[in-house]
Amino acid sequence: MRQSILQGLEQAYNNLVHMIADFLPRFLVMLIIVVLGLLVAFILKYILRAVLRLTKLDRVSEEAGASRILRIANLSSMTVLLTRSIFWVTWLAFILIGLSVLGVAGLQEQISRLLQFLPEVFIGILILFLGLVTANFLSRAALLAAVNAGHPSPRIISWSIRFVVWILAISMTLEELGVARQTVIAAFSIIFGAVMLGLAIAFGLGGQELARKSLERYLGDSKKEKDKEPQPL
Amino acid sequence: MAEDNLLSDDLLRQLMNVGEVDLLVGISSHSNMSSVSPACDGIERIFQQHFVRQRAVIVNVRSGETNEGVVAAENPGKFAENRLAGVASLRTVQRVRADFPVPPTPATALRTILTAADLLRARACAVVSPETANLSPDWIANLLAPVYRNKFDFVAPLYKRHKFQGLLTRNLLYPMSRAVFGCKIRELYVDEWGFSGRLAALCGNKDVWHEEAIQSRPEAWMALSAIFSDFRCCQTFLGQKVQSATSSGADLVEVFRQTVGNLFWCMESQQSAWLDRERSEVVDTVGPEHELTSEPTDLNQHRIFEMFRNGVTELESILISILDPATHAEIKSIVALEEGKFRFRSDLWVRTLYDFAAAYHHAVINRDHLVQALAPLYRGMTFSFLAEHSDSSPAEMEAVSERLCLEFERQKPYFREKWNANVEVKS
Q1: pLDDT of residue B70
Q2: Which of residues 291-310 of B touch A (CB under 8 A)?
Q3: What is the pLDDT of residues B118-177, one digit of tens each?
Q4: Most exposed among A30, A191, B81, B415, judged by the fewest C-beta atoms under 10 Å?
């Protein structure tokens, strides 16, 4: 009896020692990979920052209106955002590789799925960002055109355009991520269709007079309107 | 010169047949075919009256379509025979046509004319617009003579105007260009001007013809090229200008894009030449420097004011990113004034424009948007000007314009400081 207990304990001890002896090298390898990843991430961050400063990305971003959106969202400048992203993505990738070295059952499969999903996340973020920049640019262009044409509600036009582009960008992002695809498509179709139908009805019923005046001005009386301002040159 | 790609074989053949010339007049007829024939006949008459012994050529830049105007331009005898009766010319006036499959931009048309002038070794050249309904013989003679006889390199026109016509030139383009570039040429954005063969060669060789900013209005850039190359410039009085009935009306925003956008671009591209200039130089003027008429007008001043007020209110977020905070605060304070009490002070107007030009330089927003955002503020200045000068005499208006020019010059250090400021992108 005593002998059996001692043998069991010895076996358990041997197993533990064996497991530790088996696990420790892998753990050390993981640590080395994580530290190496940290170094690589830092190097990539500094290289990217230098490149972005040389290409004056922040100025381009400011000009395109993207920086303003980032400020509204309380985010850093484009350069800081991108360099931080590259740092964390690189390090995260190394951490995941390191974890896979541990050989924990089930974890590898999850890591592999996560790694497969990462490109879609990036494309989704890119689509969203481009959508925001495009929405800002187009809404500003519409606002200026409406103001200079003397339109009574320029902000409504501007916000309508911004809203439509946002909806489009968000739908495309969710579609890319594969989040409730059918629901997103249906929701987008319903919202977009409702907005357009609403505008058509509003203009057709409520804006008959406005439509008539606009057409008259556009087709026949535009010269008279222009003549009310002095010739600039 | 890079004429290989620009000039077609047909055009080169025509130019070689012409040989060298003394005088060249270029006309771009793509947008107004019907008025080409009278314009070309008029030009021919001028050559035969004022430059009897000189070898002359008319270069007509046009797009591919054929209609009566083109036929007329190509067959001068049929149309001009009777009109030119009694005029004794010692030379045949040559006509050359430069065909383009699609209507060329004004920049392409001008470059073609400059290249032709360089190849033909023309001594004096002029560009005229077929859209000018009252193109008189004296006009072209006045544009060519200072170049041919007095060795000037660039001749800008001066027009007789209604006192409320050309307010963009009076309140923005002239005073700002005078203060910044240091040259008192009143009309930089024109349809008719004269230039020498050597200026044609200089400009034709420059690598700027692809630039978007000069596609519609290359003439101001040409004038500045003359000024900064120390070429001799002058102005000549032409008379009252009447646009032809077929001429398209000017949309304010489009005019802004073409002129103010071009002016800001010229500042950007020529900054090394003007940043250190302190004073503005007088240029020689042939004839009166200005002439104003004051017939009654039916301008809708209330609408202009409303468009200014709405513009400033609606575009606040854009104006904040362009204007200095103090300038923006002052504009907001005057927007609140009643229409009857509203005045746009000249010092505020000057500061506003300098803020816009500096913002264009630093590209704080899309540059085309920036230029468009200035239009409502210009309307405010226009309203103020109309209200202030409804009963002013031409002399009083000239005095006010001169004071505005001096205000621009006084505030130039402020502009230079804004221009050179190291704009940090806020994060």
Answers
A1: 45
A2: 297-300, 303-304, 306-307, 310
A3: 999 999 999 988 777 777 778 888 999 999 999 999 999 999 888 888 899 999 999 999
A4: B81
Give domain status of residue A110, yes or no: no
SS3 A182: helix
Same domain, yes or no: A123 and A183: yes
**What residue numbers bound the domain in which B123 lies?**
3-291
User: What pLDDT does A147 receive?
Assistant: 93
- As for the ipTM of the complex, it is 0.85
The residue-averaged pLDDT of B189-208 equals 93
| B31 and B156 belong to one structural domain | yes
Q: Which residues of A touch B252 (CB under 8 A)?
A: 148, 229, 232
Tell me how far apart the alpha carbons of residues A227 and A7 are, in angstroms, rounded to a whole number: 107
Q: How many domains does chain A have?
A: 2
Q: Find out whether B29 and B69 touch, Cβ atoms under 8 Å.
A: yes
**Are the beta carbons of A67 and B426 separated by less than 8 Å?**
yes
What total number of domains does chain B contain?
Answer: 2
In angstroms, the separation between the Cα of residue B6 and the nearest Cα of chain A is 31
pLDDT in tens, A53-108: 887 777 777 666 667 666 655 567 788 888 888 898 889 888 988 888 887 777 77
Where b means 16+ CB within 10 Å and e means fewer, B319-358 reads: beebbbeebbebbeebbeeeeeebebebebbbbbbbbbbb
Type and span of the H or E element at A209: helix A208-219
